[in-house]
Inverse folding.
């Protein structure tokens, strides 16, 4: 019983710091994003968006799925940590050399000459980031998200200030490139300084074999998933204008600033926490079911609400030059409604050690997704047709990702969808009324937006209480505990 209470308290504390960390990071990123968007052009963001997939895939290769393997291990030795560290660093150097050589080909593919130099400079992030991978893994295993939050916020602030100075002085896209490099360098340096962990001069092949045996499937899955998730950057960057890619990447960034505050914090905490319950089937399912329902209660109104206020929000934040971004953002918000559910169902496979199923699921999702995208290109349905495939793919991904949850924890896709329906209905009602308020009020966006937000929150809370949605009480109590913890720490 004491062990159960200890895990619960530790998980709540970790969730608090993980969630508050993402709120803090999202807040900082939000402020800097507004300032930079007013100093830079959509085309600058589009050019940077052409590099994302190459850096993301490189990161998957470097990790090799082995940090995930380390997190799920009940006991980890110094030899394990050191082995993974040397693997990470060696692969990072090799990948950097490959990207350096491939830069001209990448530049020619996108027909953007400046990409040649940008790829070679920005790819240094790969080597810098590899140094901090194990440092961060150690903190994750300890459920120490407080330290990670401090480090990430400091890195964001310092790198953001530097980027604004550069943008103000006319450095254009290079402001974004230097921002990425500075953020990674500061973050890795602080992780090393805090942990004071140094690798042993050893590479244990038995340890490597054990960890990579689990990790390689995660790596292949991660590569396929990254290609699948970034295929839109490639297609928009190759067949459309860099400005359109800028609208897409900025919309994705703005949506994820909100969605990831829930998705990433819950997924990060739930994985190590549920790992400790992997042998208790009943508690595992009950815990996961609560997480799914609570995530729905938070994510659905947030995404639908953002879509409803998109016109006012984007004009107010970025100016009228970014107005063409509104439909991009609205469609991506609807696509992002099930982001936490997709991530959480994949967490089940990791916790249960079924990394082999990751690969099968990602291949299936990738094939279906590419079929949708191919139809759009063949029928010449344009950029909006392409964007709507993100919504279709999101629904397919939810069904596919949750398929094995029935087998592993007796929580089927149908049962999950039924659990989501009440919050979906309430969120849609709220979204329609909020959108109507925005169209009817004859005020400036600075006045209309707060009214829309207050209206949306009020409607959602009232209907949730009237409908006796249990998640309202759960989220309220959890939020209350988190704020009490915050207040206590501020007043000590």
């Amino acid at each position: 019983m004491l062990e159960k209470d200890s895990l619960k308290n530790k998980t709540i504390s970790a969730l608090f710091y993980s969630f508050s960390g993402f709120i803090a990071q999202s807040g900082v990123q939000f402020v800097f994003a507004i300032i930079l968007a007013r100093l830079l052009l959509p085309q600058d963001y589009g050019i940077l968006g052409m590099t994302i997939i190459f850096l993301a895939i490189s990161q998957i290769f470097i990790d090799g799925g082995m940090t995930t393997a380390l997190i799920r291990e009940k006991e980890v030795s110094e030899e394990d940590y050191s082995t993974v560290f040397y693997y990470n660093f060696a692969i990072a150097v090799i990948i950097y050399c490959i990207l350096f050589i491939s830069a001209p080909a990448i530049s020619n593919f996108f027909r953007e000459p400046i990409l040649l130099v940008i790829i070679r400079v920005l790819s240094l992030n790969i080597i810098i980031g590899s140094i901090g991978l194990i440092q961060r893994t150690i903190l994750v295993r300890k459920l120490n998200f407080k330290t990670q939050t401090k480090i990430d916020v400091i890195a964001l602030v310092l790198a953001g200030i530097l980027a604004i100075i550069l943008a103000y002085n006319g450095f254009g896209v290079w402001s974004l490139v230097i921002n990425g490099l500075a953020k990674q360098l500061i973050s890795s340096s602080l992780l090393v300084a805090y942990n004071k962990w140094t690798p042993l001069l050893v590479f244990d092949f038995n340890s490597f074999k054990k960890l990579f045996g689990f990790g390689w499937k995660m790596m292949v899955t991660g590569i396929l998933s990254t290609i699948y998730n970034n295929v839109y950057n490639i297609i928009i960057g190759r067949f459309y204008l860099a400005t359109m890619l800028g609208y897409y990447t900025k919309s994705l960034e703005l949506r994820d600033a909100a969605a990831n505050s829930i998705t990433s914090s819950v997924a990060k905490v739930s994985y190590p926490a549920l790992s400790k319950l992997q042998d208790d089937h009943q508690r595992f399912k009950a815990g996961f079911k609560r997480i799914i329902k609570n995530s729905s209660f938070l994510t659905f109104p947030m995404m639908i609400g953002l879509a409803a206020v998109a016109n006012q929000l984007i004009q107010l934040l970025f100016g009228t030059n970014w107005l063409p971004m509104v439909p991009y953002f609205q469609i991506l918000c609807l696509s992002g409604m099930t982001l936490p559910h997709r991530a959480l169902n994949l967490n089940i496979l990791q916790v249960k050690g079924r990394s082999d199923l990751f690969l099968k699921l990602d291949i299936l999702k990738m094939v279906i997704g590419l079929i949708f995208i191919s139809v759009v290109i063949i029928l010449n349905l344009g950029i909006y047709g392409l964007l709507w495939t993100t919504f279709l793919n999101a629904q397919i991904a939810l069904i596919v990702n949750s398929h094995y949850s029935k087998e592993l924890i007796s929580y089927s896709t149908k049962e999950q969808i039924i659990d989501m329906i009440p919050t979906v209905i309430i969120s849609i009602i709220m979204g329609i009324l909020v959108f109507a308020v925005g169209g009817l009020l004859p005020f400036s966006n600075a006045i209309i937006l707060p009214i829309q937000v207050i209206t949306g929150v009020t409607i959602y809370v009232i209907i949730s209480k009237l409908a006796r949605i249990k998640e309202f009480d759960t989220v309220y109590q959890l939020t209350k505990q988190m704020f009490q913890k915050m207040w206590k720490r501020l007043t000590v």
In short: Residues 155 and 187 are 5 Å apart (CA to CA). The first helix runs from residue 2 to 39. The chain has 21 helices and no strands.
